Amino acid sequence: MHDYRNNELCARYQRGQTKDYAGIVQLVEAHKNDIISVDHPFIVAVALKNTDEMVGEIVVMPNDGCISLGYTFSYNYHRKGYAYEALSLLIDTLHERYPQMEFICFTEPENTASMALLTKLGYTNYGYVEKITSNVFGKWVNGNP
């Protein structure tokens, strides 16, 4: 986690991520017992099945009928399908448990890889919002798929 959070390929589009080693240790300790719920934010570690090597993380932030997702995957595993597989499973699980929730993601306008991933996941690009300096992507927003 420390390695990829401090790598320019992974970190350039991340806002507010803890990058120092001590902070990451605190983050892991604080979230090691997280459960899937819309009552509070949680973090999902993504690891390889055969080795348990952590390849990324997904942050889930529920708020007022909406689930916002953020994700970072190690540069060693970009464009290998791991982000798509992990996000697909998590999004489907969350939607099955909480079908009334809308799903939102925000991306930097230059983050074409993330925008392509969200499109592949079935999100709609609602465009750039200057106030938050991000492109907004949504799924199941206002009852639309």
Q: What is the number of E strands?
A: 6
- Structural class label: alpha+beta
CA gyration radius, whole angstroms:
15 Å
User: Whole-number average pLDDT?
Assistant: 92
Sequence of strands across the biggest β-sheet = 1-2-3-4-6-5
Sheet of most strands: 6 strands, mixed
Which shape, going by the Cα principal axes? Answer: globular
Low-pLDDT runs: none
Walk me through the structure.
The chain has 145 residues and is an alpha+beta fold. The protein is built from 5 helices and 6 strands; from the N terminus they run αααβββαβαββ. The protein has a 6-stranded mixed β-sheet with strand order 1-2-3-4-6-5. The mean pLDDT is 92.
Short description, anyone?
The protein is an alpha+beta fold and 145 residues long. It has five helices and six strands.
